[in-house]
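A favour, since you know our structure tokens better than I do. What I am after is a single protein written out in full by you. Could you add the entry underneath, on a fresh line?


***
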Amino acid sequence: MNWDDVRIFLAVARAGQILQAARRLGVNHATVARRLTALEEALQAKLVKRHTTGCELTPEGETFLLAAERMETEMLAARADIGATDVTVSGVVRIGAPDGFGVAFLAPRLVPLLEQYPDLTVQLVPVPRSFSLDRREADIVITVERPAQGRLVARKLVDYSLGYYASRSYIAEHGCPASREELEHHRLIGFVEDLIYSPSLNYQGEMLRGHQPQFECASALGQTEAVRAGLGIGILHGFLAREDPELVEILSEHRIQRAYWAVYHESTRQLRRIKAVSDFVYSLVEQERAIFQ
């Protein structure tokens, strides 16, 4: 069995398409198709159903995927141990993160990491969506839930709070609600419910008690900007809102708690660049834990 054929199979399984796998590998799609066929012939088993819209693993393919990932893990570990790869911290590490944590907290604090490792490239993808570590859409994911399944390594970073906030200008013009029942008399800012990617983020029913927002935004930073502009009352991340003198917390007895986790795939735990970035993010949060409380 050829290891390169196994590597191509993994790329196809993760991408779900031969063309997309070829792009990620930097080879021609015909080469990917040919090597995949060679692997199937060597194993005497059909691993992938090829459709015009993509690829689907067969039951045999699902079984072989587990074995292939174990092979990949051992290969990465062996290469790292003998110094054939990741001798220095270099290469690309992609971090998928919610925009509040990724843009507002992490991005401005990456200078020490990049100065320490000049050959390292960090890609930050701060969009409100989930990422597949199995498909290698990201190397490290900052999530609000600990994953319940999969070959993943999860490390809790910090608890954080969310609460009701309004701008000083809004309060001056519309007053301040004395209870959650009075929210129905105010303009509310919320999230786009059908774009929520995690049950932990579906707190609108709990916090707004059935009151319908007049403005909805899928971005935590977008909601913060809307509240700052006086558009209405919103549920904001405390570590973002408390830094802004224009924003005032109201109904502070009704805060809710959530947590951030750093997660990466078990097969990459031996890679120095993954460990370096993961450790940096964890130590950064530890140093500035007070702003999340």
